[in-house]
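Sequence in, structure out. Go.
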Amino acid sequence: MAGSPDDNRLSVWSALDALPAPKRPTITDDAPAGSADDVQIQGDVMVYCPLHPTAESKVELAHTKVVEVPVGQPDGVEHNSRWDFLWSVTVGLVKSSPPKTKRVETWVPSTTEISFHALWWGYRMYLPPPVMASINEDESEAEKIVGTITAALTWFLSNTNVASIPPPLQPAFLLLQKLAPYAGYIATFIAWIWGTVKHTDKGNGVVLTATWLLPVALIPSAIKASDASLTTPPTAAAQTVAA
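Output:
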């Protein structure tokens, strides 16, 4: 279960992380009505929270940025990889026209604080390098890790005013608030797998992912370099959502 590349054993975390993420509902699958460009922001929410909150700390709605994403496949033909697509072009099954794209607004994880991202199928916790470094200082004592993360989760969930969350984002945030009774269990699980979490970090931090069906079992994966820094200015400043 806790294999590693060092001993040529594949850990359960590596196997689970390799699985594709569940597909989002489309507008025709009972998703909120609206244009295709605003489904991303209407269906999920991200907020920033400090690892060590103080009296001056605030919960903030995450920044956003606009990115280009592909829309469907040419001529309605689906391809499992770029090689399938190139082969299809070669044998003349589809035209070699460039894929269509659209501009969508997406969340930007914090580079200094914990980011909580609630989606319809589960949630993510982004731990950037400063947060990883702070937790690593307590790695010799699992109880300190549990206490730190439990305190951060409890503070975050009790210091956010739902009414201050934009209405389209409230359903996702209400799902996130259901984690309150499990804060201690989540922190204990993170402390238990901290060695795996550290090994996963490639220098940009780690994102922990869990489903609502099993919210205390988080799967670590490395934060990609493209997600670790702002390559374009945010389209909206962080908004305080404190109670």
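Check: Residues 19-40, 74-79, 230-237 have pLDDT under 50 and may be disordered. The chain has nine helices and nine strands.
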